[in-house]
Amino acid sequence: MTSWLHKYGYPTLHCVLFCVVLAANIIGGSSHSGESICSSPPVSSCSECLRRGPQCAWCFEAGFLDGAEVGERCDLVGNLARRGCGLEFIEHPEVMVEVNATTSSTQVSPGEITLTLRPGAEASVIVAVQQLERYPVDLYYLVDVSASMQENLDQLKTVGVALSHRMREHSSDLRLGFGSFVDKPVSPYINVHPSKINNPCSDYEVKCRPAHGFHHVLSMTANMSEFTRIIKRQRISGNMDTPEGGLDAMLQATVCQGEVGWRGEAKRLLLLMTDQPSHLALDSRLAGIVTPHDGLCHLENNVYMESTTMDHPSLGLLAEKLLENHIYSLFAVEQLQYQWYEELVRLLPGSNLLFQAPKLIDVVVDAYKRLLSVVQVSVSVEDRAFSRFLVSVSPLCPEGSVSHDNRSCSNVQPNQTVYFNITIGLHSCPDDDDDVDDVVQVFVRPVGYNESTIIKIQTVIIKT
Ligand SMILES: *[C@@H]1O[C@H](CO)[C@@H](O)[C@H](O)[C@H]1NC(C)=O
Ligand SMILES: *[C@@H]1O[C@H](CO)[C@@H](O)[C@H](O)[C@H]1NC(C)=O
Ligand SMILES: *[C@@H]1O[C@H](CO)[C@@H](O)[C@H](O)[C@H]1NC(C)=O
Ligand SMILES: *[C@@H]1O[C@H](CO)[C@@H](O)[C@H](O)[C@H]1NC(C)=O
Ligand SMILES: *[C@@H]1O[C@H](CO)[C@@H](O)[C@H](O)[C@H]1NC(C)=O
Ligand SMILES: *[C@@H]1O[C@H](CO)[C@@H](O)[C@H](O)[C@H]1NC(C)=O
Protein backbone atom coordinates (compact mmCIF):
# COMPACT_ATOMS: atom_id res chain seq x y z
CA MET A 1 0.00 0.00 0.00
CA THR A 2 2.82 2.38 0.80
CA SER A 3 4.09 2.09 -2.73
CA TRP A 4 0.65 2.79 -4.08
CA LEU A 5 0.44 5.95 -2.00
CA HIS A 6 3.84 7.07 -3.20
CA LYS A 7 2.99 6.39 -6.78
CA TYR A 8 -0.31 8.23 -6.86
CA GLY A 9 -0.16 10.67 -3.97
CA TYR A 10 -3.55 11.85 -2.79
CA PRO A 11 -6.22 10.08 -4.74
CA THR A 12 -8.89 11.75 -6.73
CA LEU A 13 -12.20 10.02 -6.90
CA HIS A 14 -11.00 8.26 -10.04
CA CYS A 15 -8.03 6.95 -8.27
CA VAL A 16 -10.18 5.76 -5.43
CA LEU A 17 -12.30 3.92 -7.95
CA PHE A 18 -9.26 2.48 -9.63
CA CYS A 19 -7.72 1.33 -6.39
CA VAL A 20 -10.94 -0.11 -5.16
CA VAL A 21 -11.28 -2.25 -8.23
CA LEU A 22 -7.67 -3.34 -7.95
CA ALA A 23 -8.24 -4.38 -4.39
CA ALA A 24 -11.26 -6.48 -5.17
CA ASN A 25 -10.24 -9.97 -4.34
CA ILE A 26 -11.94 -13.09 -5.41
CA ILE A 27 -11.45 -16.09 -3.22
CA GLY A 28 -14.13 -18.25 -4.67
CA GLY A 29 -15.14 -19.57 -8.01
CA SER A 30 -11.92 -20.53 -9.71
CA SER A 31 -12.03 -23.81 -11.51
CA HIS A 32 -9.51 -26.61 -11.31
CA SER A 33 -9.50 -29.83 -13.21
CA GLY A 34 -9.53 -33.22 -11.55
CA GLU A 35 -11.47 -34.88 -8.79
CA SER A 36 -13.80 -32.46 -7.06
CA ILE A 37 -13.57 -32.13 -3.31
CA CYS A 38 -16.79 -30.14 -3.63
CA SER A 39 -19.01 -32.99 -4.68
CA SER A 40 -17.82 -35.86 -2.52
CA PRO A 41 -18.79 -36.66 0.07
CA PRO A 42 -22.02 -34.88 -0.84
CA VAL A 43 -23.00 -31.75 1.04
CA SER A 44 -26.49 -30.88 2.16
CA SER A 45 -26.53 -27.11 1.90
CA CYS A 46 -25.05 -24.16 0.12
CA SER A 47 -23.20 -23.02 3.25
CA GLU A 48 -21.62 -26.41 3.69
CA CYS A 49 -20.61 -26.37 0.04
CA LEU A 50 -18.80 -23.08 0.36
CA ARG A 51 -17.00 -24.25 3.45
CA ARG A 52 -15.48 -27.06 1.39
CA GLY A 53 -13.14 -24.64 -0.27
CA PRO A 54 -12.86 -21.48 -2.23
CA GLN A 55 -13.09 -23.31 -5.54
CA CYS A 56 -16.49 -24.78 -4.76
CA ALA A 57 -19.55 -23.23 -6.33
CA TRP A 58 -23.23 -23.85 -5.81
CA CYS A 59 -25.81 -23.99 -8.54
CA PHE A 60 -28.86 -21.96 -7.63
CA GLU A 61 -30.92 -22.82 -10.66
CA ALA A 62 -34.29 -24.07 -9.49
CA GLY A 63 -34.69 -26.97 -11.95
CA PHE A 64 -31.03 -28.07 -11.95
CA LEU A 65 -30.72 -31.85 -12.55
CA ASP A 66 -34.38 -32.35 -11.82
CA GLY A 67 -34.81 -34.72 -8.92
CA ALA A 68 -31.10 -35.07 -8.23
CA GLU A 69 -29.54 -35.11 -4.76
CA VAL A 70 -29.12 -31.64 -3.34
CA GLY A 71 -25.40 -32.34 -2.90
CA GLU A 72 -24.92 -32.36 -6.65
CA ARG A 73 -25.47 -28.66 -6.71
CA CYS A 74 -22.02 -28.29 -5.22
CA ASP A 75 -19.13 -28.61 -7.61
CA LEU A 76 -16.39 -26.83 -9.46
CA VAL A 77 -17.76 -24.12 -11.69
CA GLY A 78 -16.70 -25.94 -14.84
CA ASN A 79 -18.38 -29.16 -13.76
CA LEU A 80 -21.62 -27.42 -12.87
CA ALA A 81 -21.71 -25.77 -16.28
CA ARG A 82 -21.05 -29.05 -18.06
CA ARG A 83 -23.90 -30.64 -16.15
CA GLY A 84 -26.30 -28.01 -17.37
CA CYS A 85 -26.50 -25.36 -14.67
CA GLY A 86 -27.32 -22.12 -16.41
CA LEU A 87 -24.29 -19.93 -16.58
CA GLU A 88 -26.17 -17.01 -15.11
CA PHE A 89 -26.52 -19.02 -11.90
CA ILE A 90 -22.84 -19.68 -11.45
CA GLU A 91 -20.94 -17.34 -13.60
CA HIS A 92 -22.12 -14.08 -12.20
CA PRO A 93 -19.26 -11.72 -11.61
CA GLU A 94 -18.25 -12.70 -8.10
CA VAL A 95 -17.16 -9.26 -7.12
CA MET A 96 -18.12 -5.97 -8.63
CA VAL A 97 -17.34 -2.63 -7.16
CA GLU A 98 -18.95 0.58 -8.31
CA VAL A 99 -18.32 4.00 -6.91
CA ASN A 100 -21.17 6.46 -7.15
CA ALA A 101 -19.39 9.54 -8.38
CA THR A 102 -22.35 11.83 -7.90
CA THR A 103 -22.12 11.54 -4.13
CA SER A 104 -19.08 13.55 -3.25
CA SER A 105 -18.23 15.30 -0.05
CA THR A 106 -15.34 17.26 1.28
CA GLN A 107 -14.09 15.01 4.04
CA VAL A 108 -15.10 11.42 3.49
CA SER A 109 -14.90 9.86 0.05
CA PRO A 110 -16.34 8.11 -1.77
CA GLY A 111 -19.83 8.75 -0.42
CA GLU A 112 -21.41 5.64 -1.82
CA ILE A 113 -20.07 2.33 -3.07
CA THR A 114 -22.04 -0.54 -4.50
CA LEU A 115 -20.57 -3.99 -4.04
CA THR A 116 -21.79 -7.10 -5.72
CA LEU A 117 -20.69 -10.17 -3.84
CA ARG A 118 -21.41 -13.84 -4.01
CA PRO A 119 -21.02 -16.15 -1.04
CA GLY A 120 -17.42 -17.07 -0.52
CA ALA A 121 -16.04 -13.90 -2.07
CA GLU A 122 -14.64 -10.84 -0.44
CA ALA A 123 -13.78 -7.35 -1.58
CA SER A 124 -11.76 -4.50 -0.19
CA VAL A 125 -12.59 -0.85 -0.61
CA ILE A 126 -10.55 2.14 0.35
CA VAL A 127 -12.26 5.00 2.13
CA ALA A 128 -10.41 8.30 2.43
CA VAL A 129 -10.96 10.65 5.36
CA GLN A 130 -9.55 14.12 5.02
CA GLN A 131 -9.53 16.51 7.87
CA LEU A 132 -10.14 20.21 7.36
CA GLU A 133 -7.89 22.78 8.93
CA ARG A 134 -10.49 24.44 11.15
CA TYR A 135 -13.92 23.45 12.25
CA PRO A 136 -16.71 25.30 13.98
CA VAL A 137 -17.18 23.83 17.44
CA ASP A 138 -20.36 23.21 19.42
CA LEU A 139 -19.77 22.43 23.09
CA TYR A 140 -22.65 21.40 25.32
CA TYR A 141 -22.08 21.45 29.05
CA LEU A 142 -24.12 18.83 30.80
CA VAL A 143 -23.75 19.53 34.46
CA ASP A 144 -24.70 17.49 37.46
CA VAL A 145 -26.31 20.07 39.76
CA SER A 146 -26.60 17.87 42.83
CA ALA A 147 -25.61 19.64 46.04
CA SER A 148 -21.96 18.60 45.92
CA MET A 149 -21.46 20.37 42.61
CA GLN A 150 -21.78 24.01 43.66
CA GLU A 151 -18.07 24.63 43.23
CA ASN A 152 -18.09 23.33 39.69
CA LEU A 153 -21.03 25.43 38.78
CA ASP A 154 -19.23 28.48 40.14
CA GLN A 155 -16.24 27.61 38.05
CA LEU A 156 -18.31 27.50 34.89
CA LYS A 157 -19.33 31.12 35.30
CA THR A 158 -15.97 32.28 34.08
CA VAL A 159 -15.46 29.63 31.43
CA GLY A 160 -17.50 30.99 28.52
CA VAL A 161 -15.60 34.09 27.52
CA ALA A 162 -12.17 32.70 28.31
CA LEU A 163 -12.81 29.49 26.39
CA SER A 164 -14.02 31.31 23.34
CA HIS A 165 -10.80 33.37 23.34
CA ARG A 166 -8.67 30.26 23.60
CA MET A 167 -10.56 28.38 20.91
CA ARG A 168 -10.10 31.14 18.39
CA GLU A 169 -6.71 29.72 17.47
CA HIS A 170 -8.16 26.31 16.71
CA SER A 171 -11.70 26.79 15.56
CA SER A 172 -13.54 29.01 13.15
CA ASP A 173 -16.20 29.72 15.76
CA LEU A 174 -17.43 28.38 19.05
CA ARG A 175 -20.92 27.95 20.43
CA LEU A 176 -21.82 26.83 23.90
CA GLY A 177 -24.95 25.23 25.26
CA PHE A 178 -25.97 24.11 28.72
CA GLY A 179 -28.18 21.53 30.36
CA SER A 180 -28.50 20.23 33.91
CA PHE A 181 -29.38 16.93 35.50
CA VAL A 182 -29.53 15.20 38.83
CA ASP A 183 -31.29 11.87 38.85
CA LYS A 184 -34.64 10.25 38.26
CA PRO A 185 -37.00 12.12 40.58
CA VAL A 186 -38.45 9.01 42.18
CA SER A 187 -37.75 7.05 45.34
CA PRO A 188 -35.20 5.67 46.23
CA TYR A 189 -33.07 8.16 44.28
CA ILE A 190 -34.59 11.18 45.93
CA ASN A 191 -36.31 11.78 49.22
CA VAL A 192 -40.01 11.89 48.41
CA HIS A 193 -41.03 13.29 51.74
CA PRO A 194 -43.24 16.30 50.92
CA SER A 195 -40.88 18.69 52.68
CA LYS A 196 -37.95 17.45 50.60
CA ILE A 197 -39.43 17.31 47.12
CA ASN A 198 -39.43 21.02 46.56
CA ASN A 199 -36.34 21.74 48.57
CA PRO A 200 -34.20 18.63 48.80
CA CYS A 201 -31.56 20.50 50.79
CA SER A 202 -33.82 21.62 53.65
CA ASP A 203 -31.71 19.69 56.20
CA TYR A 204 -28.83 22.01 55.45
CA GLU A 205 -30.96 25.11 55.64
CA VAL A 206 -30.19 26.00 52.08
CA LYS A 207 -32.78 26.55 49.42
CA CYS A 208 -32.21 24.35 46.41
CA ARG A 209 -34.27 23.22 43.48
CA PRO A 210 -36.13 19.92 43.03
CA ALA A 211 -34.25 16.98 41.56
CA HIS A 212 -34.80 16.42 37.85
CA GLY A 213 -33.82 13.91 35.19
CA PHE A 214 -32.66 16.43 32.61
CA HIS A 215 -33.39 20.05 31.84
CA HIS A 216 -32.19 21.55 28.62
CA VAL A 217 -31.41 25.12 29.61
CA LEU A 218 -29.48 26.94 26.90
CA SER A 219 -29.37 26.10 23.19
CA MET A 220 -26.09 26.57 21.31
CA THR A 221 -25.16 30.21 21.34
CA ALA A 222 -22.14 32.26 20.32
CA ASN A 223 -23.15 34.93 22.83
CA MET A 224 -20.84 34.31 25.76
CA SER A 225 -22.47 36.89 28.00
CA GLU A 226 -25.72 35.02 27.58
CA PHE A 227 -23.96 31.79 28.55
CA THR A 228 -22.53 33.42 31.67
CA ARG A 229 -25.87 34.94 32.57
CA ILE A 230 -27.57 31.55 32.36
CA ILE A 231 -24.90 29.79 34.40
CA LYS A 232 -25.19 32.42 37.13
CA ARG A 233 -28.89 31.70 37.39
CA GLN A 234 -28.39 27.97 38.03
CA ARG A 235 -29.12 26.67 41.48
CA ILE A 236 -28.07 23.34 42.83
CA SER A 237 -30.38 20.51 43.74
CA GLY A 238 -30.12 17.40 45.87
CA ASN A 239 -30.73 13.67 45.78
CA MET A 240 -30.20 10.61 47.95
CA ASP A 241 -28.11 7.86 46.45
CA THR A 242 -24.64 8.60 45.14
CA PRO A 243 -24.76 7.62 41.44
CA GLU A 244 -26.43 10.22 39.22
CA GLY A 245 -28.56 10.05 36.10
CA GLY A 246 -25.90 11.25 33.67
CA LEU A 247 -26.58 8.73 30.91
CA ASP A 248 -30.26 9.67 30.70
CA ALA A 249 -29.23 13.29 30.26
CA MET A 250 -26.51 12.48 27.73
CA LEU A 251 -28.92 10.57 25.57
CA GLN A 252 -31.42 13.42 25.48
CA ALA A 253 -28.73 16.00 24.77
CA THR A 254 -27.56 13.77 21.92
CA VAL A 255 -30.83 13.01 20.19
CA CYS A 256 -32.72 16.26 20.81
CA GLN A 257 -30.91 17.86 17.91
CA GLY A 258 -33.29 20.73 17.30
CA GLU A 259 -33.66 21.79 20.91
CA VAL A 260 -29.95 21.70 21.62
CA GLY A 261 -29.19 23.36 18.30
CA TRP A 262 -26.27 21.22 17.19
CA ARG A 263 -24.92 22.53 13.88
CA GLY A 264 -24.41 20.13 11.00
CA GLU A 265 -20.99 21.49 10.11
CA ALA A 266 -19.59 21.69 13.65
CA LYS A 267 -17.41 19.33 15.62
CA ARG A 268 -19.75 18.48 18.44
CA LEU A 269 -18.57 18.02 21.99
CA LEU A 270 -20.77 16.87 24.83
CA LEU A 271 -19.08 17.49 28.16
CA LEU A 272 -20.49 15.70 31.18
CA MET A 273 -19.46 17.18 34.53
CA THR A 274 -20.14 15.13 37.61
CA ASP A 275 -18.53 14.05 40.85
CA GLN A 276 -20.33 10.72 41.04
CA PRO A 277 -20.66 7.53 38.99
CA SER A 278 -23.70 7.23 36.73
CA HIS A 279 -26.64 4.92 36.90
CA LEU A 280 -26.59 2.24 34.23
CA ALA A 281 -29.38 0.46 32.40
CA LEU A 282 -31.37 -1.83 34.71
CA ASP A 283 -30.47 0.26 37.77
CA SER A 284 -33.92 1.81 37.77
CA ARG A 285 -35.60 -1.51 38.48
CA LEU A 286 -35.06 -0.53 42.08
CA ALA A 287 -37.65 2.16 41.49
CA GLY A 288 -39.92 -0.19 39.57
CA ILE A 289 -39.01 1.25 36.17
CA VAL A 290 -38.67 -1.59 33.70
CA THR A 291 -39.35 -0.03 30.28
CA PRO A 292 -36.07 0.05 28.34
CA HIS A 293 -35.06 3.35 26.85
CA ASP A 294 -36.31 3.83 23.30
CA GLY A 295 -33.45 6.07 22.19
CA LEU A 296 -35.75 8.94 21.26
CA CYS A 297 -36.00 12.57 22.30
CA HIS A 298 -38.62 13.19 24.98
CA LEU A 299 -38.29 16.86 25.77
CA GLU A 300 -41.32 18.97 26.46
CA ASN A 301 -40.68 22.60 27.23
CA ASN A 302 -37.04 21.59 27.60
CA VAL A 303 -37.80 19.06 30.33
CA TYR A 304 -37.14 15.32 29.91
CA MET A 305 -40.56 13.77 30.29
CA GLU A 306 -39.77 10.05 30.52
CA SER A 307 -37.38 10.25 33.42
CA THR A 308 -39.69 8.35 35.75
CA THR A 309 -41.07 5.90 33.20
CA MET A 310 -38.08 4.77 31.14
CA ASP A 311 -34.93 3.05 32.28
CA HIS A 312 -31.50 4.61 31.82
CA PRO A 313 -30.15 3.89 28.32
CA SER A 314 -27.67 1.08 27.90
CA LEU A 315 -24.13 2.02 26.98
CA GLY A 316 -24.64 0.34 23.62
CA LEU A 317 -27.62 2.51 22.83
CA LEU A 318 -25.85 5.64 23.96
CA ALA A 319 -22.77 4.76 21.89
CA GLU A 320 -24.93 4.20 18.83
CA LYS A 321 -26.70 7.54 19.22
CA LEU A 322 -23.48 9.44 19.81
CA LEU A 323 -22.02 7.93 16.68
CA GLU A 324 -25.10 8.51 14.59
CA ASN A 325 -25.21 12.15 15.62
CA HIS A 326 -21.43 12.49 15.35
CA ILE A 327 -20.97 13.71 18.87
CA TYR A 328 -17.80 13.26 20.91
CA SER A 329 -18.36 12.85 24.58
CA LEU A 330 -16.02 14.22 27.22
CA PHE A 331 -16.21 13.34 30.88
CA ALA A 332 -14.92 15.79 33.42
CA VAL A 333 -14.93 13.89 36.68
CA GLU A 334 -13.41 14.08 40.14
CA GLN A 335 -10.29 12.09 40.77
CA LEU A 336 -12.18 9.66 42.99
CA GLN A 337 -14.42 8.65 40.09
CA TYR A 338 -11.74 8.51 37.46
CA GLN A 339 -11.44 4.75 37.48
CA TRP A 340 -15.16 4.20 37.27
CA TYR A 341 -15.43 6.38 34.17
CA GLU A 342 -12.36 4.83 32.56
CA GLU A 343 -14.40 1.69 32.07
CA LEU A 344 -17.27 3.63 30.58
CA VAL A 345 -15.16 5.63 28.16
CA ARG A 346 -13.75 2.48 26.65
CA LEU A 347 -17.24 1.57 25.48
CA LEU A 348 -18.13 4.90 23.89
CA PRO A 349 -16.42 5.54 20.54
CA GLY A 350 -14.16 8.57 20.44
CA SER A 351 -14.92 9.61 23.97
CA ASN A 352 -12.42 11.17 26.27
CA LEU A 353 -11.85 11.35 30.00
CA LEU A 354 -10.58 14.38 31.84
CA PHE A 355 -9.78 15.28 35.37
CA GLN A 356 -12.11 17.90 36.64
CA ALA A 357 -9.24 20.23 37.24
CA PRO A 358 -9.28 23.93 38.01
CA LYS A 359 -8.00 24.36 34.47
CA LEU A 360 -11.22 23.36 32.79
CA ILE A 361 -10.45 25.50 29.78
CA ASP A 362 -7.10 23.85 29.15
CA VAL A 363 -8.58 20.41 29.34
CA VAL A 364 -11.34 21.26 26.88
CA VAL A 365 -8.88 22.76 24.41
CA ASP A 366 -6.54 19.80 24.79
CA ALA A 367 -9.37 17.33 24.36
CA TYR A 368 -10.49 19.09 21.20
CA LYS A 369 -6.98 19.00 19.74
CA ARG A 370 -6.60 15.37 20.70
CA LEU A 371 -9.91 14.46 19.08
CA LEU A 372 -8.84 16.08 15.83
CA SER A 373 -5.54 14.26 15.86
CA VAL A 374 -7.18 10.84 16.08
CA VAL A 375 -9.09 9.59 13.09
CA GLN A 376 -11.10 6.48 13.75
CA VAL A 377 -13.79 4.70 11.81
CA SER A 378 -16.70 2.71 13.03
CA VAL A 379 -18.13 0.17 10.62
CA SER A 380 -21.62 -1.15 11.17
CA VAL A 381 -23.64 -3.68 9.27
CA GLU A 382 -27.41 -3.65 9.39
CA ASP A 383 -28.50 -5.94 12.22
CA ARG A 384 -30.35 -8.57 10.30
CA ALA A 385 -27.36 -9.26 8.04
CA PHE A 386 -24.70 -8.96 10.68
CA SER A 387 -23.76 -12.59 11.01
CA ARG A 388 -23.41 -13.22 7.28
CA PHE A 389 -20.72 -10.66 6.67
CA LEU A 390 -17.20 -10.54 7.89
CA VAL A 391 -15.91 -6.99 8.02
CA SER A 392 -12.38 -6.01 8.84
CA VAL A 393 -10.80 -2.60 8.88
CA SER A 394 -7.19 -1.62 8.64
CA PRO A 395 -6.05 1.98 8.69
CA LEU A 396 -3.33 3.27 6.40
CA CYS A 397 -1.97 6.13 8.46
CA PRO A 398 -0.31 9.15 6.83
CA GLU A 399 3.31 10.05 7.46
CA GLY A 400 4.07 10.82 11.09
CA SER A 401 0.98 9.09 12.34
CA VAL A 402 0.57 5.64 13.84
CA SER A 403 -2.15 3.14 14.56
CA HIS A 404 -2.29 1.58 18.00
CA ASP A 405 -5.43 -0.43 17.61
CA ASN A 406 -6.12 -1.29 13.93
CA ARG A 407 -9.10 1.06 13.94
CA SER A 408 -7.61 4.52 14.16
CA CYS A 409 -4.62 6.69 13.34
CA SER A 410 -3.23 8.98 16.02
CA ASN A 411 -1.25 12.16 15.65
CA VAL A 412 -2.89 13.10 12.36
CA GLN A 413 -2.19 16.68 11.25
CA PRO A 414 -4.77 19.03 9.74
CA ASN A 415 -5.12 18.52 5.98
CA GLN A 416 -3.70 15.01 6.09
CA THR A 417 -5.69 12.18 4.60
CA VAL A 418 -6.19 8.89 6.38
CA TYR A 419 -7.16 5.83 4.35
CA PHE A 420 -9.05 2.87 5.66
CA ASN A 421 -8.97 -0.47 3.93
CA ILE A 422 -12.35 -2.05 4.57
CA THR A 423 -12.64 -5.69 3.66
CA ILE A 424 -16.06 -7.23 3.41
CA GLY A 425 -16.52 -10.93 2.96
CA LEU A 426 -19.71 -12.83 2.47
CA HIS A 427 -18.96 -16.04 4.22
CA SER A 428 -22.25 -17.79 4.40
CA CYS A 429 -25.36 -18.24 2.38
CA PRO A 430 -28.50 -16.39 3.33
CA ASP A 431 -30.92 -18.18 5.62
CA ASP A 432 -34.07 -19.46 4.06
CA ASP A 433 -36.12 -16.63 5.45
CA ASP A 434 -33.70 -13.91 4.38
CA ASP A 435 -34.85 -11.91 1.47
CA VAL A 436 -31.84 -12.27 -0.74
CA ASP A 437 -32.88 -9.57 -3.14
CA ASP A 438 -32.44 -7.00 -0.41
CA VAL A 439 -29.49 -4.71 -0.55
CA VAL A 440 -27.57 -4.78 2.70
CA GLN A 441 -26.02 -1.52 3.79
CA VAL A 442 -22.76 -1.14 5.61
CA PHE A 443 -22.07 2.25 7.17
CA VAL A 444 -18.52 3.45 7.47
CA ARG A 445 -18.57 6.37 9.88
CA PRO A 446 -15.44 8.21 10.86
CA VAL A 447 -16.09 8.99 14.52
CA GLY A 448 -17.09 12.61 15.00
CA TYR A 449 -17.39 13.42 11.30
CA ASN A 450 -20.64 14.61 9.82
CA GLU A 451 -20.09 12.57 6.66
CA SER A 452 -19.92 8.86 6.01
CA THR A 453 -19.59 6.22 3.34
CA ILE A 454 -22.43 3.86 2.59
CA ILE A 455 -21.49 0.53 1.10
CA LYS A 456 -24.46 -1.15 -0.53
CA ILE A 457 -24.00 -4.85 -0.90
CA GLN A 458 -25.93 -6.76 -3.43
CA THR A 459 -25.59 -10.49 -3.06
CA VAL A 460 -25.88 -12.58 -6.17
CA ILE A 461 -27.65 -15.66 -5.12
CA ILE A 462 -30.88 -17.33 -6.04
CA LYS A 463 -32.61 -19.53 -3.54
CA THR A 464 -33.04 -23.20 -4.23
C1 LIG B 1 -6.85 -4.49 2.14
O1 LIG B 1 -7.01 -5.59 3.00
C2 LIG B 1 -7.09 -6.83 2.32
C3 LIG B 1 -7.42 -7.91 3.32
O2 LIG B 1 -6.63 -7.81 4.45
C4 LIG B 1 -5.78 -7.10 1.60
O3 LIG B 1 -5.84 -8.32 0.90
C5 LIG B 1 -5.54 -5.96 0.61
O4 LIG B 1 -4.28 -6.13 -0.01
C6 LIG B 1 -5.57 -4.63 1.33
N1 LIG B 1 -5.52 -3.57 0.33
C7 LIG B 1 -4.68 -2.53 0.41
C8 LIG B 1 -4.75 -1.56 -0.69
O5 LIG B 1 -3.93 -2.41 1.36
C1 LIG C 1 -25.78 7.94 -6.73
O1 LIG C 1 -26.23 8.66 -5.59
C2 LIG C 1 -27.30 9.55 -5.85
C3 LIG C 1 -27.58 10.35 -4.60
O2 LIG C 1 -27.64 9.54 -3.46
C4 LIG C 1 -28.52 8.73 -6.29
O3 LIG C 1 -29.60 9.61 -6.59
C5 LIG C 1 -28.15 7.93 -7.53
O4 LIG C 1 -29.23 7.10 -7.87
C6 LIG C 1 -26.92 7.07 -7.25
N1 LIG C 1 -26.50 6.42 -8.50
C7 LIG C 1 -26.25 5.12 -8.56
C8 LIG C 1 -25.77 4.62 -9.89
O5 LIG C 1 -26.44 4.37 -7.61
C1 LIG D 1 -25.93 38.62 24.34
O1 LIG D 1 -26.52 38.32 25.58
C2 LIG D 1 -26.68 39.45 26.41
C3 LIG D 1 -27.12 38.98 27.78
O2 LIG D 1 -28.16 38.04 27.68
C4 LIG D 1 -27.68 40.40 25.75
O3 LIG D 1 -27.87 41.54 26.54
C5 LIG D 1 -27.13 40.80 24.37
O4 LIG D 1 -28.08 41.58 23.68
C6 LIG D 1 -26.79 39.58 23.54
N1 LIG D 1 -26.06 39.97 22.34
C7 LIG D 1 -26.43 39.60 21.13
C8 LIG D 1 -25.58 40.08 20.00
O5 LIG D 1 -27.42 38.90 20.93
C1 LIG E 1 -20.13 18.77 7.24
O1 LIG E 1 -19.09 19.66 7.63
C2 LIG E 1 -18.50 20.37 6.56
C3 LIG E 1 -17.30 21.14 7.08
O2 LIG E 1 -17.46 21.59 8.38
C4 LIG E 1 -19.56 21.28 5.94
O3 LIG E 1 -19.01 22.01 4.87
C5 LIG E 1 -20.72 20.43 5.47
O4 LIG E 1 -21.76 21.24 5.00
C6 LIG E 1 -21.25 19.55 6.60
N1 LIG E 1 -22.23 18.61 6.06
C7 LIG E 1 -23.44 18.45 6.61
C8 LIG E 1 -24.29 17.41 5.98
O5 LIG E 1 -23.84 19.10 7.56
C1 LIG F 1 -3.57 -5.46 14.29
O1 LIG F 1 -3.67 -6.38 13.22
C2 LIG F 1 -2.54 -7.22 13.08
C3 LIG F 1 -2.72 -8.05 11.81
O2 LIG F 1 -4.06 -8.33 11.54
C4 LIG F 1 -2.41 -8.09 14.34
O3 LIG F 1 -1.27 -8.92 14.24
C5 LIG F 1 -2.26 -7.17 15.55
O4 LIG F 1 -2.23 -7.94 16.73
C6 LIG F 1 -3.41 -6.18 15.62
N1 LIG F 1 -3.16 -5.24 16.67
C7 LIG F 1 -4.07 -4.90 17.57
C8 LIG F 1 -3.64 -3.91 18.60
O5 LIG F 1 -5.21 -5.34 17.55
C1 LIG G 1 -4.84 22.99 4.18
O1 LIG G 1 -5.59 23.01 2.96
C2 LIG G 1 -6.15 24.27 2.68
C3 LIG G 1 -7.05 24.12 1.45
O2 LIG G 1 -6.53 23.19 0.55
C4 LIG G 1 -5.01 25.28 2.45
O3 LIG G 1 -5.56 26.55 2.19
C5 LIG G 1 -4.16 25.33 3.73
O4 LIG G 1 -3.04 26.19 3.53
C6 LIG G 1 -3.65 23.94 4.11
N1 LIG G 1 -3.00 24.02 5.41
C7 LIG G 1 -1.89 23.35 5.72
C8 LIG G 1 -1.37 23.51 7.12
O5 LIG G 1 -1.30 22.65 4.91
UniProtKB/TrEMBL annotation:
Keywords: Calcium, Cell adhesion, Cell membrane, Disulfide bond, EGF-like domain, Glycoprotein, Integrin, Magnesium, Membrane, Metal-binding, Repeat, Signal, Transmembrane, Transmembrane helix. It is a single-pass type I membrane protein. Pfam families: Integrin_beta, PSI_integrin. It is found in: Cell membrane. Residues 45-459 form the Integrin beta subunit VWA domain. Coiled coil: none annotated. Residues 37-86 form the PSI domain. Residues 1-23 form the signal peptide. One of its GO terms (cellular component) is cell surface. GO terms for biological process: cell adhesion mediated by integrin; cell migration; cell-cell adhesion; integrin-mediated signaling pathway. GO terms for molecular function: integrin binding; metal ion binding. InterPro entries: Integrin_beta_N, Integrin_bsu, Integrin_bsu_VWA, Integrin_dom_sf, PSI, vWFA_dom_sf. Belongs to the integrin beta chain family. This is Integrin beta. The gene is LOC120022050.
